[in-house]
Amino acid sequence: MWSKTEVPGDAMAHPSGRLRKAPENFIDPAGVREVFVEAGRGRRDFVRKAFAAALGGAAAAGAMAQGNPVPAEGGDPNILELPEHSKGLGQPVATEGYGKPSKFEGNVQRRPSPGLTQTAQSSVSFAPLQSLFGIVTPSGLHFERHHQGWWDVDPSKHRLMINGSDDKMVKTPKVFTMDEIMRLPSVSRFHFIECGANSGMEWGNVAVPTVQYTHGMISCSEFTGVPLKILLDLCGVDYRRGRYVLAEGADGSSMTRTVPMELIESGEVFVAYGQNGEMLRPENGYPLRLVVPGVQGVSWVKYLRRIEVGDQPYGTKDEAVHYIDLMPDGQHRQYSSIQECKSVVTTPSGGQVLLDQGFYNISGLAWSGRGKVKKVDVSVDGGRNWRSARLEGPVMSKSLTRFNIDWVWNGKPALIQSRASDDTGYVQPSYKQLRAVRGTRSIYHNNSIQSWLVQESGEVKNVQLS
Amino acid sequence: MWSKTEVPGDAMAHPSGRLRKAPENFIDPAGVREVFVEAGRGRRDFVRKAFAAALGGAAAAGAMAQGNPVPAEGGDPNILELPEHSKGLGQPVATEGYGKPSKFEGNVQRRPSPGLTQTAQSSVSFAPLQSLFGIVTPSGLHFERHHQGWWDVDPSKHRLMINGSDDKMVKTPKVFTMDEIMRLPSVSRFHFIECGANSGMEWGNVAVPTVQYTHGMISCSEFTGVPLKILLDLCGVDYRRGRYVLAEGADGSSMTRTVPMELIESGEVFVAYGQNGEMLRPENGYPLRLVVPGVQGVSWVKYLRRIEVGDQPYGTKDEAVHYIDLMPDGQHRQYSSIQECKSVVTTPSGGQVLLDQGFYNISGLAWSGRGKVKKVDVSVDGGRNWRSARLEGPVMSKSLTRFNIDWVWNGKPALIQSRASDDTGYVQPSYKQLRAVRGTRSIYHNNSIQSWLVQESGEVKNVQLS
After folding, report:
1. Which residues of A touch B108 (CB under 8 A)?
2. Window A:358-377, CB contacts with B under 8 Å
């Protein structure tokens, strides 16, 4: 399905985003003349050694003598020239408009997968995980998944209705305007959202080339909104009978999903209008979407227009026909909505190229739909040996967690994997373990360990271990 | 200095951003027919009452009967029409470019202050705090402060030099490329950055009209980068003698600031390339800036090109002439760089208009340059009575903290204030307390309590209490 030539150029992008056109420059070797590969010592010493003597060549020494780190380009390294930006008057402060990334980052973009769907309105655009840092996904790079395209819905006309499946389920059905919702008590929380089909291609042994395409249907944001429980309380819901709600979106796909009432009663589910400090983006459901932490993205209904309270699961098309797992015996597994514990190394990852031996910071993301990530182990030898990575704080429930770990590449083939576990004790499975239970015919809910092979050439590729 | 007509239209913007042109519509009263103002009962009941019967008018009832919350506009409320976005095929997934906010949010922008500085290259653009949620500032709305304009510096040519003030201070001076820095162990942390001059106009009893202009020189991001200690270790710094560093930027202003070595040894100071998941924005120092948590923004040197290690404070122009506090006795207070504990209510705030009595969610931001926010108290009667607000988690050290508290407005004048305290026990001062010590001639380091007066008309204005 994927050939090398189909890989978009920017798939090679280093996090800095600037080397995308020349994958052979993934790591710029300039100045690095001596590399230490033994990792036997303590980290600080070990890092120093990996750089020792490497950065003090003639040009650098000349530059340093003048107190200026920018030697003249292409000329005598001892003759220094100030760059224009160190002499001139720059750009003024913003007087209007909305800020944009550097022009040097222009190829850090979300990307659709060629041929994945029949129309671009019912499709996916993947987040460029290989170019991202930390846990916050910039809203301009948040993955997209639409069932009938996105709309920029006028918030002054948008309404949210809450009603019951029968006359007694909800005492006072109501219709809320956005202004009314935004007057109510609000919460702000960091959560990941992952499409149930994320990493879906891998079920069938299709090794898509980059982490953008293997895992790019996950993103993480700080969401702000009103707990759904507050809205239901305002309408007088009969919680004894009303054990499920149906959430319905306003776009043409009429997306509908059942959410169990206990998730709402826990206070975790909320209707969000804010994302990463500002209003939701149109392609992510502006002006209102449901946030169902830990549950697959399809339940986070966009353009949310209606909540119906009922006494049983609704079994709608989006849960009876789609987002179900085909098991080895031919039966379908329904309502498996929690995104289980999972992780992936984002640097180095498929499509990137390491030119030098020496020190690298291996970095990646871990998450669990059941709570907090407890530990992430990393192997560089295909699972024979594991070391625990550093988790960047704060480690939050049902949020992404960034991990980092030191590595010195000795130039030999290396098989890089990460394995997360969460605070329930659950451990991310291998492909072998997952397939033993689930077979290979599913599309959804693949949370197995990802393997990246660093070849002697430095090229990194996606490999599937049987 | 400020007259009503100088207030930009969008200063009135509700967080939803859509009512900016009609401040009288700050809260849309549609459908709210009955308002309960007594706050004597428990919150849930109280909120329900504030909305009771209000949202179930004829149009809504008709809409609900049809299971559709969008009644035909301007027509018979019982005849329903599906909006276009509920019938048609929407926009496709992104194939290129970088996502943008809704067109309905177009006026949520950073704004310069008319006449504040002589040139737009040495100026400020304020973040629209009245329109933001949670704690993450979208990078496209992050405040700007430049001393000689901003540049989009080519990261492949950018260098960071580390050297000593004499031959022995640093064993092996080095020049790092961006690629070399990005290979090193990284950290990701949430921190606020506040200009030392934030709220500076208020020293002289100038009540600027909106929170964007009173407090908009603060923003908060997740930063990613390499602890400066790791870089200094690589160069073999003599920490016994080297008790200070000088940080120098590459832009034409040659911004230079002294940073005490103990801050660096604590591991808190780092050189950042990432901000909110992606590379730094050009106006915020792309590709490399110093992050000095808790310290005023001027020390977070942008376009960072050099770190010099020395044995005493440098006393550069940016610390000897600028960013110093003029005390009542005519002496200057130097090196006062920590941003003390502070808070502000962002909704409701100056320039906004409340049209209805009834329930509101009062929301704001709190922070401390010394650690974590411990408590935020809110008063609606000018400080006679205080209630503790809810703090949204996670509460992180030297980061913004969002607070929320319920309020029912009874239509009478109300004086809204917030007062934060941090985990050192420090309590945010009143203007009176601050001026008793610092006088009124300073520009910098104003962290006193902000007062917003809600008038009977619903208009909110900035008032200064003597």
Report:
1. 278-279
2. 358-361, 363
